[in-house]
Amino acid sequence: MSDFHQNGIITDFHNLTQRSVDALEQELCQFSRRRPMGLILPSLFSELEGPALSGIVDELAKVPYLNEIVIGLDRADREQFLYAREFFSRLPQHTRILWNDGPRLSALDAELGEHGLGALEPGKGRNVWYCAGYMLSSGRSTVVGLHDCDILTYERGLLARLMYPVAHPNFNYSFSKGYYPRIAKGKLNGRVSRLLVTPLLRALKTVYGPLPYLDYLDGFRYPLSGEFAMRREVLEEIRMPADWGLEIGVLSELQRNYSLRQLCQVDIADAYDHKHQPISEEDPNGGLNRMSLDISKALYRKLATQGVTFSSEDFRTLKATYYRFALDLIEAYDHDATMNGLSLDRHSEEQAVELFASNLLEAGNLFLDNPRERPFIPSWNRVQAAVPDLLARMHEAVELDNQGKV
């Protein structure tokens, strides 16, 4: 059960009474008359064969207030797309699959590339961005939720709590972000958030002084969670990173475009478990290794836009400061885990911190060496200004794919 603390920066919706899912859904059905709701599911084809997604679909089939579900399908050939159509066919909501590797959407992606728009590399951010475009083209939803497809502990109450603040007609929130404890099988998880983001934010505050942006990010209880809900206009205006910096990049865009009073965070689960990424110490393009690089670069880029200047010496100082904060936090997490009867491998925790510390320097060098990097996919408002009929053609392409004309 959650506490009732408010940090004074981001409004926090707690789980104080364990209110029933049925009661929440009854209200959401009423809200949906004024604010129709949809859901985005970014998915790799491999997740259709994994242990989580079938259970998620079973739960979503019971959700009465969703008007549409849009699945972004990556890394799928024709036969796999046809399999996906059958896999998701049991959903009673208006459901569409974006076959991102299919010929129709690939042609649109190439066209965007010719205009200097679109994503420079595949990834979750690109997947979500195309799903957002389709949502805008369909016009069926004014509130849109998003969550991952690998949640092993998924229950439909997670979605109900995530959507509630943005869907409520008397609330003024444009965006909500989920949080939860990362505990599974007697272990304390969430290494990147615990061991990279939190100590890095504190180190940045120490080195560069108090900055509103750093206080803002530190106000989120789980800044790396992949569960969002937002108003339709957010989808139109927001720029999305294509890499592992998606969650930090989205929060950065919101801080730039919206009042803090329009943002909130929601306790959406008592326990949460999903696919765990390997450390991938030997592979800088995989696992937590790549994730820590992209997140660090995302933070550096945002601070640079706010007038912070960086040098190689700065990054060495930052690494040392981060390392001290991270080691102190490992001790705190270890003691917390012990009192709660959970296990925590201090050796592997310190190994992760050593990798993350090294990547802070590597990310800094990459940032300094490539100042012209274009990390964000342009907003859909910009795309519509450049190619006014693209959303209509995207809608037509998705409809043809889903109607069997592949």
Characterise the protein shown here.
There is one protein chain. The protein is built from 16 helices and 12 strands. It has 406 residues and is of the alpha/beta class. An 8-stranded mixed sheet has the order 1-11-6-9-5-2-3-4, with helices on both faces. The protein has a two-stranded antiparallel ribbon with strand order 7-8. It has a two-stranded antiparallel ribbon with strand order 10-12. The chain is globular. One of its GO terms (molecular function) is transferase activity. Keywords: Transferase.
Q: End-to-end span in angstroms?
A: 49 Å
Biggest sheet, strands in spatial order? 1-11-6-9-5-2-3-4
Strand element count: 12
Biggest pleated sheet? 8 strands, mixed
Look at the helices and sheets and give the structural class. Answer: alpha/beta
| β-strand amount | 5-15%
Mean pLDDT, nearest integer? Answer: 93
Give the % helix: 40-55%
Order of helices and strands: EHEHHEHEHHEHEEEHHEHEHEHHHEHH
Whole-angstrom Rg = 21 Å
Overall shape: globular
Q: List unreliable stretches of 5+ residues.
A: none
Question: Helix tally?
Answer: 16
Key features of this structure:
single chain, 406 residues, alpha/beta, two-stranded antiparallel sheet, 16 helices, 13% strand, globular
Task: Give a short summary of the structure.
The chain has 406 residues and is an alpha/beta fold.
What secondary-structure arrangement, pairings included, does this model have?
Layout: E1 11-13, H1 21-31, E2 37-44, H2 45-48, H3 53-60, E3 66-74, H4 78-87, E4 94-99, H5 103-114, H6 124-138, E5 143-146, H7 156-167, E6 175-179, E7 183-184, E8 187-188, H8 191-208, H9 212-218, E9 228-231, H10 232-237, E10 240-241, H11 246-257, E11 263-267, H12 287-305, H13 312-339, H14 346-369, E12 376-377, H15 380-386, H16 390-402
Parallel strand pairs: 1-11, 2-3, 2-5, 3-4, 6-11
Antiparallel strand pairs: 5-9, 6-9, 7-8, 10-12
Helix pairs in contact: 1-7, 6-16, 8-9, 8-13, 11-12, 12-14, 13-14
